[in-house]
Design goal:
The chain has 206 residues and is mainly α. The protein contains eight helices and no strands.
Protein backbone atom coordinates (compact mmCIF):
# COMPACT_ATOMS: atom_id res chain seq x y z
CA UNK A 1 0.00 0.00 0.00
CA UNK A 2 3.00 2.31 0.37
CA UNK A 3 3.44 2.49 -3.40
CA UNK A 4 -0.26 3.18 -3.86
CA UNK A 5 -0.15 5.93 -1.23
CA UNK A 6 2.89 7.50 -2.91
CA UNK A 7 1.20 7.40 -6.32
CA UNK A 8 -1.96 9.00 -4.91
CA UNK A 9 0.07 11.76 -3.24
CA UNK A 10 1.86 12.58 -6.50
CA UNK A 11 -1.35 12.56 -8.55
CA UNK A 12 -3.32 14.83 -6.20
CA UNK A 13 -0.37 17.17 -5.58
CA UNK A 14 0.20 17.52 -9.34
CA UNK A 15 -3.50 18.06 -10.05
CA UNK A 16 -3.83 20.81 -7.43
CA UNK A 17 -0.56 22.52 -8.39
CA UNK A 18 -1.33 22.53 -12.11
CA UNK A 19 -4.87 23.71 -11.41
CA UNK A 20 -3.61 26.65 -9.33
CA UNK A 21 -1.13 27.76 -11.99
CA UNK A 22 -2.86 26.81 -15.27
CA UNK A 23 -6.02 24.75 -15.29
CA UNK A 24 -8.24 27.06 -13.26
CA UNK A 25 -8.53 29.25 -16.33
CA UNK A 26 -9.13 26.38 -18.78
CA UNK A 27 -10.56 23.44 -16.85
CA UNK A 28 -12.58 24.84 -13.90
CA UNK A 29 -14.10 21.41 -13.12
CA UNK A 30 -10.76 19.84 -12.18
CA UNK A 31 -11.37 20.29 -8.39
CA UNK A 32 -14.51 18.16 -8.67
CA UNK A 33 -12.58 15.30 -10.28
CA UNK A 34 -9.75 15.70 -7.78
CA UNK A 35 -12.19 15.55 -4.86
CA UNK A 36 -13.81 12.45 -6.37
CA UNK A 37 -10.36 10.85 -6.62
CA UNK A 38 -9.64 11.66 -2.97
CA UNK A 39 -12.97 10.23 -1.81
CA UNK A 40 -12.36 7.10 -3.87
CA UNK A 41 -8.98 6.81 -2.14
CA UNK A 42 -10.74 6.81 1.24
CA UNK A 43 -12.79 3.80 0.18
CA UNK A 44 -9.80 1.98 -1.29
CA UNK A 45 -7.84 2.40 1.94
CA UNK A 46 -10.94 1.77 4.06
CA UNK A 47 -10.38 4.94 6.06
CA UNK A 48 -12.71 5.35 9.01
CA UNK A 49 -14.32 8.68 9.91
CA UNK A 50 -12.10 8.79 12.99
CA UNK A 51 -8.98 8.36 10.86
CA UNK A 52 -10.19 11.17 8.60
CA UNK A 53 -10.57 13.49 11.58
CA UNK A 54 -14.35 13.83 11.38
CA UNK A 55 -16.89 13.56 14.14
CA UNK A 56 -16.63 14.32 17.84
CA UNK A 57 -13.76 12.00 18.74
CA UNK A 58 -10.58 13.96 19.35
CA UNK A 59 -12.43 17.28 19.35
CA UNK A 60 -11.84 18.16 23.00
CA UNK A 61 -8.21 16.98 23.04
CA UNK A 62 -7.48 18.91 19.82
CA UNK A 63 -9.07 22.04 21.26
CA UNK A 64 -6.99 21.61 24.40
CA UNK A 65 -3.81 21.50 22.31
CA UNK A 66 -4.67 24.34 19.92
CA UNK A 67 -6.30 27.06 21.98
CA UNK A 68 -3.18 28.34 23.73
CA UNK A 69 -0.90 28.73 20.66
CA UNK A 70 -3.85 30.07 18.66
CA UNK A 71 -4.68 32.68 21.31
CA UNK A 72 -1.00 33.62 21.63
CA UNK A 73 -0.60 34.08 17.86
CA UNK A 74 -3.89 35.97 17.63
CA UNK A 75 -2.89 38.26 20.50
CA UNK A 76 0.42 39.04 18.81
CA UNK A 77 -1.33 39.90 15.54
CA UNK A 78 -3.94 42.03 17.34
CA UNK A 79 -1.12 43.90 19.10
CA UNK A 80 0.52 44.47 15.72
CA UNK A 81 -2.81 45.78 14.39
CA UNK A 82 -2.96 48.22 17.30
CA UNK A 83 0.64 49.37 16.80
CA UNK A 84 0.25 49.94 13.06
CA UNK A 85 -3.26 51.36 13.32
CA UNK A 86 -4.62 48.88 10.81
CA UNK A 87 -7.37 47.92 13.26
CA UNK A 88 -9.29 51.12 12.38
CA UNK A 89 -10.04 49.66 8.95
CA UNK A 90 -11.89 46.69 10.45
CA UNK A 91 -15.67 46.92 10.69
CA UNK A 92 -17.48 44.18 12.60
CA UNK A 93 -20.62 44.01 10.51
CA UNK A 94 -22.91 41.17 9.50
CA UNK A 95 -21.15 41.10 6.14
CA UNK A 96 -17.71 40.70 7.76
CA UNK A 97 -19.02 37.92 10.00
CA UNK A 98 -20.47 36.17 6.97
CA UNK A 99 -17.10 36.59 5.28
CA UNK A 100 -15.38 34.92 8.20
CA UNK A 101 -17.89 32.08 8.00
CA UNK A 102 -17.10 31.55 4.33
CA UNK A 103 -13.37 31.70 5.01
CA UNK A 104 -13.73 29.20 7.84
CA UNK A 105 -15.55 26.85 5.46
CA UNK A 106 -12.70 27.23 2.97
CA UNK A 107 -10.13 26.49 5.70
CA UNK A 108 -12.14 23.44 6.76
CA UNK A 109 -12.02 22.20 3.18
CA UNK A 110 -8.26 22.83 3.08
CA UNK A 111 -7.71 20.91 6.32
CA UNK A 112 -9.86 18.08 4.98
CA UNK A 113 -7.60 17.79 1.94
CA UNK A 114 -4.35 18.41 3.79
CA UNK A 115 -4.92 16.22 6.83
CA UNK A 116 -7.53 13.63 5.87
CA UNK A 117 -5.77 12.91 2.60
CA UNK A 118 -2.17 14.15 2.48
CA UNK A 119 -1.15 13.66 6.12
CA UNK A 120 -2.77 10.22 6.27
CA UNK A 121 -1.19 9.04 3.03
CA UNK A 122 2.18 10.52 3.98
CA UNK A 123 2.05 8.76 7.36
CA UNK A 124 1.32 5.52 5.53
CA UNK A 125 4.16 6.11 3.08
CA UNK A 126 6.76 7.55 5.49
CA UNK A 127 5.94 5.30 8.42
CA UNK A 128 6.81 8.09 10.85
CA UNK A 129 4.36 10.79 12.06
CA UNK A 130 7.03 13.44 12.49
CA UNK A 131 8.44 12.91 8.99
CA UNK A 132 4.92 12.81 7.56
CA UNK A 133 4.08 16.11 9.28
CA UNK A 134 7.12 17.88 7.77
CA UNK A 135 6.26 16.53 4.31
CA UNK A 136 2.65 17.62 4.74
CA UNK A 137 3.86 21.09 5.77
CA UNK A 138 6.06 21.30 2.67
CA UNK A 139 3.11 20.40 0.45
CA UNK A 140 0.89 22.97 2.18
CA UNK A 141 3.54 25.67 1.70
CA UNK A 142 4.02 24.69 -1.97
CA UNK A 143 0.32 25.30 -2.60
CA UNK A 144 0.80 28.88 -1.37
CA UNK A 145 3.61 29.85 -3.73
CA UNK A 146 4.70 32.57 -4.44
CA UNK A 147 3.15 34.43 -1.48
CA UNK A 148 6.09 35.46 0.78
CA UNK A 149 3.83 35.81 3.82
CA UNK A 150 1.88 32.58 3.47
CA UNK A 151 4.80 30.29 2.56
CA UNK A 152 6.55 30.40 5.98
CA UNK A 153 3.25 30.59 7.87
CA UNK A 154 1.79 27.55 6.11
CA UNK A 155 5.05 25.61 6.40
CA UNK A 156 5.59 25.97 10.15
CA UNK A 157 1.89 26.22 10.96
CA UNK A 158 1.24 23.29 8.66
CA UNK A 159 3.75 21.16 10.55
CA UNK A 160 2.11 21.96 13.88
CA UNK A 161 -1.38 21.22 12.54
CA UNK A 162 -0.35 18.00 10.79
CA UNK A 163 1.54 16.72 13.82
CA UNK A 164 -1.45 17.45 16.02
CA UNK A 165 -3.86 15.85 13.56
CA UNK A 166 -1.88 12.63 13.37
CA UNK A 167 -2.01 12.42 17.16
CA UNK A 168 -5.51 13.66 18.01
CA UNK A 169 -7.54 13.17 14.80
CA UNK A 170 -9.94 16.09 14.47
CA UNK A 171 -9.86 18.74 11.75
CA UNK A 172 -12.45 21.19 13.11
CA UNK A 173 -10.25 23.08 15.62
CA UNK A 174 -7.41 23.08 13.09
CA UNK A 175 -9.62 24.81 10.52
CA UNK A 176 -10.77 27.40 13.06
CA UNK A 177 -7.18 28.17 14.07
CA UNK A 178 -6.20 28.56 10.41
CA UNK A 179 -9.17 30.82 9.67
CA UNK A 180 -8.57 33.07 12.69
CA UNK A 181 -4.84 33.49 12.06
CA UNK A 182 -5.39 33.96 8.32
CA UNK A 183 -7.94 36.76 8.85
CA UNK A 184 -5.73 38.51 11.41
CA UNK A 185 -2.70 38.21 9.11
CA UNK A 186 -4.61 39.89 6.30
CA UNK A 187 -5.44 42.80 8.62
CA UNK A 188 -2.18 43.12 10.54
CA UNK A 189 0.21 43.08 7.59
CA UNK A 190 0.26 45.51 4.65
CA UNK A 191 -1.81 44.35 1.67
CA UNK A 192 1.16 44.82 -0.66
CA UNK A 193 2.93 42.08 1.31
CA UNK A 194 0.28 39.37 1.11
CA UNK A 195 -1.85 40.61 -1.85
CA UNK A 196 -5.11 39.61 -0.19
CA UNK A 197 -3.75 36.15 0.73
CA UNK A 198 -3.79 35.19 -2.96
CA UNK A 199 -1.58 32.44 -4.37
CA UNK A 200 -0.43 31.28 -7.79
CA UNK A 201 -0.90 33.72 -10.69
CA UNK A 202 -3.54 35.56 -8.68
CA UNK A 203 -0.80 36.82 -6.37
CA UNK A 204 0.45 39.09 -9.16
CA UNK A 205 -3.01 40.53 -9.87
CA UNK A 206 -3.42 44.11 -8.73
Amino acid sequence: MKRLAAAEIVIVFAAITIYIWRWQYVYPDVPIYTLAFIIASFFVHRDSLQLLGMGSRGLVSTLRCTWQPTVAAAAGLILLCWITGSWVHVNLTQASLNGFGRYFAWCLFQQFGLQSFFSNRLAEFAGNPNRAAWLSAAIFAAFHLPNPVLIPVTFFGGYFLARLFLRERNILPLAFAQALIGILLSVALPANWHHGLRVGPGYYRR
